[in-house]
Fold DUF3347 domain-containing protein.
Amino acid sequence: MNSNSNSGKKNQNMNVFRISLIVLAVFALSCKEETVPFTLAHQNVAAKLLSENQILLEEYLKENPKPNWKIFSETLETMVASGHPKLKSWAEGLRPLLPASGSDLESSYEKISKIQEILIQIKTEVPNQSQYNRFYCPMVDKYWLMTGREVKNPYAPEMRDCGELLQ
């Protein structure tokens, strides 16, 4: 009789365990962050930001660069107002990285590098941003996004062709 009651308790404990496991799994799945799709308007805002980045990096390629971050900054505000949680998060991450006007190039390069890392995430996750390519320079250990396939390193004025196109 003792073995039967022990066996019955084991089965009851297993059933409680199974039910608890199922409830926990359902709860975990329901808590998963909802993925908000990128609409055409969201894609266009991302494209505008990447386009402004292109303009800024081309300015850094010049002999005496005078980058104007105003339109890039305004586009960040559009991203925040877009209602898309990822765009808002990226914009809020980019805001403090914007180089101050008149800041020296060396300190700007560090901020631009961090900006490029976030822009690479945007290019990767937002559909229809394939016209931009990712480049890497091992000499300065930095990435950047630009159109085309030719290496135009915005970080090293003395080595504009240092780097490689990444796939």
